[in-house]
């Protein structure tokens, strides 16, 4: 979020983008169609310990579970029941690590502070969760859906996703310039929002024109289309259960795995 002014900043950039139609089929097929690539089969979620898929989150302290599984389920249980912002951030980061989003020379960071420029003013921003290619490139941004804690309109979550993607674009280009690398005219930033423990996935194409419009407080001349893929269950469940629901957990982890490959194909184009 942008310190002290997060929602006004979100609204300020909301005019600049348009979502592609939602496709509840899933990342493996839905975003494939949205981008115009050949649909691919959904991956099979196979964690190192299968009990991650079959154990209720409330059983995190079962002595028969591995230490890694017990820790992950503990994050899930806390994020589901405590519903505090920090608990959701910690669970999201644990999920990215569990599924191999972290690679050599990268780090999954929480509440990562960086600077950005809005309307010619330098401000502080804090990204809830991100993957960083040490020490110069933000590869992926994960935004916590804060509307579940207050009365903020839900559409502002997506404005916040776009805002943080623009923040990553500015940060990445600033680091490229510092290291003598040419700055880029465009980056497609992979993003995820977490509403409790329910993920939604985005591809946000950020251009220099859009970033400059934010920096100068001008209206951009070109519209930005953001691709979005929601995660839906195939059975009746309480939405608030999120990944505490065992069947939904399997679906969500498949979406994360499919998005990982898609995200890497984009961040490799701007990784330094």
Structure description:
With 272 residues, the chain is α/β, with parallel strands linked by helices. 39% of the residues lie in helices and 24% in strands. It has eight helices and seven strands. The protein has helices spanning 6-14, 27-35, 51-54, 67-81, 85-98, 155-178, 208-216, 246-267, and strands at 17-19, 106-118, 121-133, 137-144, 186-195, 198-207, 224-230. Strands 1-7-6-5-4-3-2 form a seven-stranded mixed sheet, with helices on both faces. Helix 1 (6-14) crosses helix 6 (155-178) and helix 4 (67-81) runs antiparallel to helix 5 (85-98). The longest helix has 24 residues, at 155-178. The protein starts with 5 loop residues before the first helix and ends in a 5-residue tail after the last helix. The model is unreliable at 1-17 and 23-44 (pLDDT under 50).
Précis, in short:
The protein is an alpha/beta fold. The protein is built from eight helices and seven strands. α1 crosses α6 (155-178) and α4 packs antiparallel against α5 (85-98).
